[in-house]
Design goal:
The protein is α+β, with helices and mostly antiparallel strands. The chain folds into 2 domains: 3-104, Sandwich (Immunoglobulin-like); 163-347, no CATH class. It contains 5 helices and 20 strands. Strands 10, 11, 12, 13, 14, 15, 18, 19 and 20 form a 9-stranded mixed beta sheet that branches. The longest helix is centred in the middle third of the chain and has 16 residues, at 222-237. The protein is elongated, with a radius of gyration of 23 Å. The model has no long low-confidence stretch (mean pLDDT 92).
Length: 348
Amino acid sequence: MGHFKIGKNTIINEIALDSTPKTGGAKRITLFYDGWGRNDHPSLVIGSRKLQEDGWAKIVDKTFDAKRARVQFTIEAVPNASGITYVWDSGGTANDMLSLRVGNVLNHTGMKHDLIADLGRSENPFNLWVYRRIFDPANNDLGDKTVRKEFLKDWQDRLVDQPLKQNTDPNVEKKWNCGAAIDAFNRSSFGSSHDVWGMRPYMKPMKKNAFGLLIKSIDFLNDEIKAGAQRMKNSLAEGTATVLFVVHDDKFATDQNGHIKASNLTHYVSVVGCNEDGSEFLVLDPWPGGMKLKYRSGIFDSMGGVQSNFMGIMRLGPRWGDLDSKGRILATPQPKTGSHEYFAVRGG
């Protein structure tokens, strides 16, 4: 069985390619094919088995490396085409095939900036591979386990290919590090400098060394939150993600300075998009199902959008009950979309 690859080693079976025209031509990606396991040379074609070109993409270059028994080939999207096509070895087996989704990559509905869509607009095949895996239905299937230890282990096994997921192995909770997972994704996807960890306080200090504190008791710093929202919007315009420290359940604790301590009641998420006025933010959540979102973009809209169990929206604005009088806070909208509702207490 032949192998389609990014670079020389990373085997893939599907990838996406933006069909939005660029200055001077169309989007292209270069991939490799090897391991076809027969004496004759492979014959790479694109389209269905009956039609070698279907109007969505075309192979514009092929170079055979006889010494390494490898083909380097370049795919070009047909401008503004939309659909799923296949690259395959006409002399191979039915499994010697690469699925290619082509379409206009747009920002998620309502987002002025969207760093995830920027990955999808890239001509870097590694970025496109990450982009496709984020939205692969298999990588967003949380299964049907209901016992805590069972579904945590199930997530660890079934979601191993999801780039956004943190460790959830119930047998090694010391490895549960949402901050490290977000940091690693941001740095690998957006660049080593594209990760804001300013961690400015969005709330006044609470009682020192306290336990059992309530979210409704938080005194949010309205002006700092509004300023933080503008900073995040400005960072996104430069292609930079911002990390948020959030709390999602009551009975949290504070340190000797009255700041909320990291625990299983707190979390780290990453802001990767926002709307025009900087009041709604597209967020990555490494905890499976912590937030959920039907992600809409041109390349996926023929499917009515795709379900992400690792993304959501946080909004800047008043909340309910005692929090209404506190003014503007940055939190997930009500009703919550996933298993958690988040309130940002530190950010960029």
